[in-house]
Amino acid sequence: MVAEGHGRTPSRQQQAKVIISATYWRPWDELDVAEWIIQGRRLGTIGRGVAWWIGDWVNYGNTKFGQKYSRAARITGYDVQSLMNMSYVASRFDCSRRRENLSWSHHAEVAALAIEYQEMWLENAEKKNMSVRGLREVVRTWRANQLRGAGDAGQPRDDTGQTNDDHAPEPQGSEVVCPQCGYRMEAEGNSR
Fold it and tell me: Sign of the C-alpha dihedral, residues 167, 96, 49, 79?
């Protein structure tokens, strides 16, 4: 292996310590525990970041070049629906609002909500170390309570005059209970 632009062989430390393909990860030689940990952290970062990166990439292409999802699907190998999901979630969270301690899937669970509710639920998920499934169930219960308590009256309407449940006011004093752990929380985000 030759270093680009230098015409010399790189040192052992500069050489890749692992081989990565679309279907496997394999070390070139034996790794010590420190290097194994470094590799794991890199893989974790890549795994958590890929959906964000692809979503941002698709959004850039759509804005800059007017590209369609079908072309992005041919380029990436992802199906159109997956690309649409990644694009949507990335578009709903500015980079500064994305929480590194939570997965893309956590963000996807609250992407359709108004920003203040996204923040409320992501903060609670972070504080309580909620799983994606736990967050999904708590948000579903909260939304059901919201609809039962508010009905159609007073619900914000979009440009077409349709009600928009995502921006509905929270019923006061309602409680959400996580079906996984039994954690009880006020709808306003105050824990009990």
Answer: positive
Residue-wise pLDDT for 11-42, tens only, equals 444 466 889 888 999 998 899 999 999 999 99
What size, in residues, is the chain?
Answer: 192
Contacts of 188 (CB under 8 A, 6+ apart): 120, 170, 172
User: What's the pTM?
Assistant: 0.67
Helix residue ranges, H only, the chain: 33-65, 69-76, 80-92, 104-110, 115-127, 132-150
**Rounded alpha-carbon distances, angstroms, from residue 189 to 99, 105, 110, 131, 184:** 18, 20, 14, 17, 10
d(CA 1, CA 8): 9
Residues 82 and 145: their CA atoms lie apart, in Å, by 30
